[in-house]
Amino acid sequence: xxxxxxxxAVTALASTVLVVTGKxxxxxxxxxxxxxxxxxxxxxxxxxxxxxxxxxxxxxxxxVVLFLFVVMMLNLGKGSVARESAWLRPSMWILPCLxxxxxxxxxxxxxxxxxxxxxxxxxxPKTVGTQLFGPYLLxxxxxxxxxxxxxxxxxxxxxxxxxxxxxxx
Amino acid sequence: xxxxxxxxxxxxxxxxxxLFCIGxxxxxVRRNVMFVLMSLExxxxxxxxxxxxxxxxxxxxDGQIMFMFILALAAAEVAVALGIVLQLSRRFDSLDxxxxxxxxx
Lengths: 169, 105
Description:
The structure holds 2 protein chains of 2 kinds.
Chain A: H1 2-21, H2 25-45, H3 49-74, H4 78-87, H5 94-111, H6 125-132, H7 137-168
Chain B: H1 9-29, H2 33-57, H3 62-92
């Protein structure tokens, strides 16, 4: 059964690499969905079914669809792929990879200690809910205020775009 | 029904670190603002994975709760950032982040 975790991990890594290296934005978004779904499988295997459901519903269902809406609105077509190829020369990868690979190796080295197992027990939505509206109530309120601020900000930024577009038509 | 497995915690953390580093590379390399935002999503998702894994170590709900806050943060960030992307494409007619390096309007 543990092999399920490794299959999902390899899928997540491969699809994430394809997201970052992709040239077509909508294809990259589909790979992002694959990556998020495999992370959701890992959440489920770790005993967090509620987090897995949220990953599918909110990340893959809402956030990626928001990205897709913007890709559709901007009319990114074949020309954008050619422009992307011009921007993304292979030599551009060298320096950022030189920066992040030591970071990765350092963090892996820091993690190499005595092996610890996860508990292997499921933490259900009920436990999460009682915790969320118990000790974490203030944080929930703050998250709500953050979302309200984001809503107002996104409306303000998008409204000007839409109204000026309407005048052009 | 309990599907939860006992997985070595280091392996989950190495996966989270790898995803984070891939996302960081994307943020550093890409010039298209859509791909920069996607890489940011990948990085935040990796942080959420680390939180859920740490919560699963002690079978506590706190990891999942922190993941939910990261989720709310990601949703808020993406809503505002995509509004900025629309403005960027309208004003500069380009999705290149370098096109917006002027402080004057």
